[in-house]
Each structure stands twice: as C-alpha cells, then as structure tokens.
Specification:
The chain is α/β, with parallel strands linked by helices. The protein is built from seven helices and seven strands.
Length: about 250
C-alpha cells in the first residue's frame, strides 16, 4: 500500500526538495504552502496534492487535517528566518519567529497525533537547523526558536513511542541556495545598529564563501533516512557542515 507524507513549507528550498524526493520514490505527497502553487512541483497528479496551510492559524490547520485524510508521515519544515543583533530585534519579530518556528510545529504535531496514536503508527519529522549544533552570532532569537523544537521533539519521542509513533529531528546546515535570507522577516541591515555592522562584516564574509555547505538534496535524503530509520536514532544532521558540527559536539 502506497504511503502518504504531508510536508509543510514546500514552495521552495528544503520542503520542495523533500516533496520531489518522496514523489520520485513512489510516495503519495501532500505538499502545503501558504499560497498554493502546484506548478512549482510540476502540477498536481494522482500522487501529489497541494493544499493551503498557515501554521500560525488554527483554522487553517484544522481545514488541512480534514482535507488531508490519513497520513503516515508529517514533516514540519515551514519556518521563517530572523538574523541580526538581538538588542535591535523588536519583540514583535521575536514573537513571530517563535509563533511560526516553534508554536507552528507544536500545533501541527498536536493536530496529527490523535489519529497516529489511534492507528498505533506514524512518524513525525521536525526540521530544525544547525544552530542547534553550534552557537552562531547574530541568530539568538532564531536559535531559541529552533532549540525549543529540539527539546520538544526529544521529549515527545519518549511520550509517543509508547503508542508506536516515532519522532525524528533533521538538522540542516547552511544552504546559500535556499531562500533563508528572502524569508527573513526583517532585512539584516535593519538589525545592525551602531558598531554591530563592523562586528558582522567578517561573519557575513564567511557566510558568503563557506568552506562547507548543505544542499537541498542533503535535507531530502536526511528526511528519507529519518522516516525509514529502525535503530531509534533521534537526530539526523543534514549537509557536510551540519555533520562536521555534530561530530565536533
């Protein structure tokens, strides 16, 4: 029987690559986007459905769960970026990061858990970031939003394991080809007051020409490995830089 995976945030980047990977490997895919655009995934087909979702809106989540029907795997990939000096970040921006990257993940998990628990089967994959593997400057609030998901997922894995439901973490490294910068709520240059621009200059230069990076395909393959893991592994670093950080820790 063909299995079904629901992936959030599939309009570009890691989510799009993951949807394409599972489609190529014979799965049914439910791809979600805030503004559905099936053409980015080649158009809807017998195995691909593209549905609207705003992970910060309970009504949107409820409508999605009703429309999706039974799913075998949930991948929480949707998220927003936010980098800059912490002292310059408005609390409204910090709340938006937490609301999308943390509460959005929790809300999606809570929406699918009852059905998975009743079936005694299912997998939840939460996509975080390599900020959970190392300490990066100019990313304090964003890091907080991702570290919260790491702790949440570890606890939830124990809680749901009793019912046959598995929880996994995929930790992507830095991918210059993704739209992380474009997805930032506030442009970086607006969050570097005073002497921070001088502090940030060598950091931004390093990110412009990184020694190791993550490809979108690395994340898709890590999600695939997490879904098919039978050894009880919780964390799956994705990309050469994330793997190096994980080994260093």
């Amino acid at each position: 029987m063909t299995k079904t995976i629901l992936i959030t945030g599939t309009s570009s980047g890691y989510g799009k690559a993951t949807a394409e990977h599972f489609l190529l490997n014979g799965w049914n895919v439910i791809a979600t986007m805030r503004r559905p655009a099936p053409e980015v995934l080649g158009g809807e087909s017998g195995r691909l459905r593209v549905l609207p979702l705003d992970v910060t809106d309970p009504t949107s989540i409820a409508a999605l769960i009703d429309a999706a029907g039974p799913i075998d795997v949930l991948v929480n990939n949707a998220g927003v970026g936010g980098v800059g000096a912490f002292e310059a970040m408005p609390m409204s921006l910090i709340r938006q990061l937490i609301e999308t990257n943390t509460i959005g993940v929790m809300a999606m998990c809570q929406a699918v858990i009852p059905r998975m628990r009743e079936r005694g089967a299912g997998t939840i994959v939460n996509v975080t970031s390599s900020v959970a593997l190392g300490e990066f400057p100019l990313a304090a609030a964003y890091t907080a939003s991702k570290w919260a998901v790491e702790g949440f997922s570890g606890s939830l894995a124990h809680e749901l394991g009793y019912f046959g439901v598995r929880v996994k973490l995929v930790e992507p490294g830095y991918a210059p080809t993704t739209r992380f910068g474009a997805n930032a709520i506030v442009p970086l240059e607006d969050l570097l007051p005073g002497d921070y621009a001088t502090f940030a200059e060598p950091i931004l230069e390093a990110f412009a020409t990184p020694a190791m990076t993550t490809q979108e395909s690395d994340v898709a393959q890590a999600v695939w490995a997490a879904v098919h893991d039978t050894a009880g592994q919780l964390r799956f670093p994705a990309g050469a830089d994330a793997l190096a950080l994980a080994q260093a820790r």
